[in-house]
Design brief:
Blueprint lengths: L1 H82 L4 H13 L1
């Protein structure tokens, strides 16, 4: 019986050691997964920030082009208005007809 107890005791010891190895392996795997996730998150944030800056710069440049184009068109329109001949008498006459007709 003592021999059987020794065998059972030995098997229990082996099972305990296996359990400890399994727990250690799980802890190591969790650490590796956490490190890989942190690395991936860091790379994503870095690339996302760079992409957003590039996109923002592109939008700013396009906005500036549109603004300059609009200012040019407004300036051209103002110049055409300023240089066109005005018929104040005809305008006043038309206005009087429309208001008092």
């Amino acid at each position: 019986m003592s021999e059987e107890m020794d065998v059972i005791q030995h098997l229990l010891e082996i099972e305990r050691e296996a359990s400890e190895i399994l727990v250690k392996a799980q802890e190591d795997a969790d650490k590796k997964i956490a490190a890989a996730k942190a690395q991936a998150d860091s790379e994503f944030k870095e690339k996302f920030t760079a992409y957003m800056k590039e996109l923002d710069d592109s939008v700013s440049a396009e906005r500036q082009k549109v603004k300059e184009n609009l200012e040019s068109q407004i300036s051209t329109f103002k110049d055409r208005l300023a240089s066109s001949e005005k018929d104040f008498d005809g305008f006043n006459s038309l206005l009087e007809k429309l208001i008092y007709a």
